[in-house]
Every structure is written in structure tokens, then in C-alpha cells.
Design brief:
The complex is a heterodimer of chains A (about 170) and B (about 160).
Chain A (H helix, E strand, L loop, with lengths): L9 H8 L2 H20 L7 H16 L7 H21 L8 H5 L4 H5 L3 H28 L8 H16 L2
Chain B lengths: L1 H16 L2 H17 L9 H28 L8 H4 L12 H6 L4 H13 L3 H8 L3 H20 L1
The chains are: A mainly alpha (about 170), B mainly alpha (about 160).
Chain lengths: ~170, ~160
């Protein structure tokens, strides 16, 4: 039986909805339609366009989110500060960290997975979040002391959000 | 991701519009939107999610063009007939292939179904879900549509 490029058993599916002769005719028509498209490929997408799209995506991911709620802005920045502080207090290893220690920041599920497409998207999102935190840290540094007091709850919320989105992938 | 799906999505847009420049625009819009909406991807078939967004972008474009035409010309312009009017060449003057010319003669719903089925490589169950219609209906429409297309190609 001919493999179906659409990942389904066409004969069986058509048999459920049509009588035998109509199912046979429909299958013949569908397979002929696939062949018609196979021998008449559409124009190729220009490589320049694909490069342009990649650049646009990179710019979009690199840009800080405009209009995000101050709660999250300050929360994210404060969370980053706390994470850095915790690493300073508890995370300092007895010896110099190896590359593996840095790599292990990425959720283990991504390393174990073979789903490149899905993982690419997750990594892109992960990277954009890191960039956002980095930007917020720089902003915090520039503002120096203008963070509102009582931001502890906000920090906690941000930590919970980060934990949910990345570390439990 | 762009390299992996760019060609198929471009083919999808091109076979729907018959216009390279417009397909370029829609493809760019698709991937930018994909990045914006990545948080809403809940797993499952990535292709199904991708082509659902592509289909929405195309139909948004159709609606937008219809509104523009109404405003500009003050008449009820049926945008879906536009490909038929420019049957031999697209807006950039590129010659259309025979399949594109005949595809443009089908009604937009049938064309959409045929093109979606071929380029998305989704199952009928997924296609029917995207189109919000029963699988049997999608099968019947495809059967009839491909029969018509074959007649046009042979004629």
C-alpha cells in the first residue's frame, strides 16, 4: 500500500465515510492530486528572504518587551539579583566550575530530547527571557536604589514564574 | 525552524495567492507571529499549530484586502476573484504555471483546502479541526475539488 505523506491510512479513512466505489474514486483522486502538486512545485522561497526573516526574529527576541508591567520589570531584576547573590553564598564550588556546570543551566529535558524544532523554540524563548533579565539588571544598576521597597512579593512571583517556565521543562 | 518550514509555508502562501511579493510578506509575518505566540504553543503537532497560524494570517489578509477594496472603490469587490482576473501573471509580472492558473479558477474555500492538505501534510482530522468542519465534509470537498482541478488541467 502506498505511503501517505499526511501520516494517515487514507484507504481506511475513506472507507469509513464513503461506499466502496466512491472511496476508491476519492482515493484515486487524492493520490492524483498529490502527484499533480509533486510535479508542479511552487517557486522556491528566496534565501535572502529567509535570512531577512531570521534577522527580524533575532531583533525581536533581543528587544526588551515594551509595556511590560513594572511589577514584572522590577520583579525580574530583583530575581536576577537574588539568584546571583544565592550563587555567591551557596553555589561557589570548591574548584573552578567546568563548562558542564554552565551548560546544566539549560533544562535537562532539552538535552535529552530529539525534537529539534520544539527545542529550538523553547531555547529561543529561554534566551529571550535571559536577555530580558540581563536588560533589567542593567536598568536596575543605572537606576541605583530606585527600586520600590516591599518588592519581595514581586520577586517571589517572578521566581515562581521562572521556575515554572524553565526549570520544570 | 525558518529553514525547515520556510519552503513549505511559502508554497502554501504562493498557491493561495499566486503572488510572490505577497507570499514574501505573509511568510515574514508568519514567522514573526510565531515567535510572538510561542508561549501559546502547548505541545502536540507543531505543524498543525504552524499551519493554523498560517491559515489565520492568510484569512486576515483576505479580510483586510476586502475592507480596503470596499473603501477605495466603493463597491463590493470580491477579492477571491482577483486571481482569476490576473490568471496569466501575478502582480510582479511573473508568469504563472499551469497548476496555478487552474487553482485560481477554483473557489477560494476549495483552493484553501487542497493547498492546506498538500503543503501542511496534516491528517484530515487536523485539517478538519482547523477548518471547524467534520472530517467527512472535508473529505467530500477535497474529493470534488480535486476532481474539478483534474478536469481543468486536462481541459
Amino acid at each position: 500500500m502506498e505511503d501517505d505523506r499526511n501520516r494517515e491510512e487514507l484507504t481506511e479513512l475513506l472507507g469509513r465515510f464513503f461506499g466502496p466505489s466512491e472511496a476508491e474514486s476519492a482515493e484515486r483522486e487524492i493520490r492524483a492530486g498529490d502527484r499533480l502538486f509533486d510535479v508542479s512545485p511552487s517557486p522556491q522561497v528566496a534565501p535572502e528572504l529567509l535570512e531577512d526573516i531570521k534577522q527580524r526574529i533575532a531583533v525581536r527576541l533581543a528587544a526588551p518587551r515594551r509595556g511590560s508591567h513594572p511589577l514584572y520589570r522590577y520583579g525580574g531584576a530583583a530575581a536576577a539579583v537574588i539568584v546571583v547573590a544565592l550563587i555567591g553564598f551557596f553555589g561557589r564550588p570548591a574548584q573552578e566550575p567546568s563548562d558542564i556546570h554552565y551548560a546544566s543551566l539549560i533544562p535537562a529535558a532539552l538535552w535529552d530530547s530529539d525534537d529539534i524544532v520544539s527545542d529550538d523554540m523553547k531555547l529561543a524563548y529561554f534566551r529571550s527571557e535571559l536577555r530580558r533579565v540581563e536588560t533589567q539588571m542593567l536598568a536596575l544598576d543605572a537606576d541605583d536604589g530606585e527600586v520600590a521597597t516591599g518588592a519581595l512579593d514581586e520577586v517571589e512571583m517572578e521566581l515562581i514564574r521562572i521556575e515554572r517556565q524553565f526549570w520544570k521543562e | 525552524m525558518v529553514d525547515l518550514y520556510g519552503g513549505r509555508c511559502y508554497g502554501y502562501f504562493y498557491r493561495l495567492t499566486g503572488d510572490r511579493d505577497l507570499s514574501d510578506e505573509l511568510l515574514s509575518e508568519l514567522f514573526v507571529k510565531l515567535v510572538e505566540k510561542i508561549g501559546s504553543y502547548k505541545g502536540g503537532s507543531f505543524e498543525s499549530w504552524l499551519f493554523r497560524i498560517a491559515s489565520n494570517i492568510f484569512h486576515d489578509h483576505l479580510r483586510s484586502r476586502k475592507r480596503q477594496k470596499k473603501l477605495a472603490e466603493g463597491r463590493r469587490a470580491d477579492l477571491e476573484q482577483r486571481p482569476t482576473e490576473t490568471a496569466q501573471s501575478d502582480l510582479t509580472g511573473d508568469k504563472l504555471d499551469r497548476l496555478q492558473i487552474q487553482l485560481n479558477r477554483l473557489d477560494s474555500d476549495t483552493r484553501d483546502l487542497i493547498v492546506l492538505r498538500y503543503y501542511s501534510e496534516m491528517s484530515f482530522k487536523e485539517i478538519a479541526a482547523i477548518r471547524s468542519e467534520p472530517i467527512g465534509t472535508a473529505l467530500s470537498k477535497l474529493h470534488r475539488g480535486l476532481g474539478k482541478l483534474r478536469e481543468l488541467m486536462e481541459g
